[in-house]
Amino acid sequence: MSISTKRGDDGTTSLLFNKRVPKTHPRVMTYGRIDELSSALGLCRAHSNDATTKELLLSIQKQLVHYMGELATADEDQARYQEKHGAQAINAGMIRTFSDLIIEKEKDIRFEGWVYPGDSLADAFFDNARTTCRRAERGVVALQESGALVRSELIQYLNRLADLLWLLGREHA
38 and 64 in contact (C-beta within 8 Å)? Predict the structure, then answer.
């Protein structure tokens, strides 16, 4: 099976459950931002020397696959998606994990004033991932504001993740 199906040569792509939409569809644009975030996290993982951080980032990348799946599902198919994939969906427990990590890391990280990314290659990648996460978050909010079904946990997840990435950047500076 080839990765090149040529089905998108006309400027369309498929959402889950075989719904064809333009590649500029808000859902496509939004899950594309999550894909960019996963790539940015891959750079962070590649440049971190901390095994625990690498494991955390890989776990988040795996969660983002399910995040993209939910975004790549039309409103009328959301119940069907949840029935089939709901066990892996972004949930309050994942958000709590981020919140707990933030509280823990804030105990050890001291900062004053504005932070300028680039003290190390790793910290620059974490700050790039953070800004990519914020762009993705704005996209998810815009999708929700357009009237699409978007669970509040999806927005909360990205909001906490961006905060966590900022702290990870400080650890890697």
Answer: yes
| CA pair distance 39, 34, nearest whole angstrom | 9
CA distance 173 to 161: 18
φ/ψ of residue 20, rounded to 5: -85, 135
* Whole-number average pLDDT of the chain: 96
Closest of 53, 51, 90 to residue 168, by C-alpha: 53
DSSP run (H or E) holding 22: strand 19-22
pLDDT for 1 beyond 80: no
Round to the nearest angstrom and report the end-to-end CA distance of the chain.
43
Q: How does DSSP assign 89-122, residue by residue?
A: S--HHHHHHHHHHHHHHHTT----S---S-SSHH
Quote the radius of gyration of the chain (alpha carbons, Å). Answer: 17
The domains found in the chain, sorted by start residue, are: 23-72+89-171 (1.20.1200.10)
C-alpha 61/C-alpha 161 separation (Å) is 12
Q: How far is CA 153 from CA 73, 84, 137, 160, in A?
A: 16, 18, 11, 10
When comparing pLDDT for 173 and 62, which is higher?
62
Q: Which of helix, strand or coil describes residue 23?
A: coil
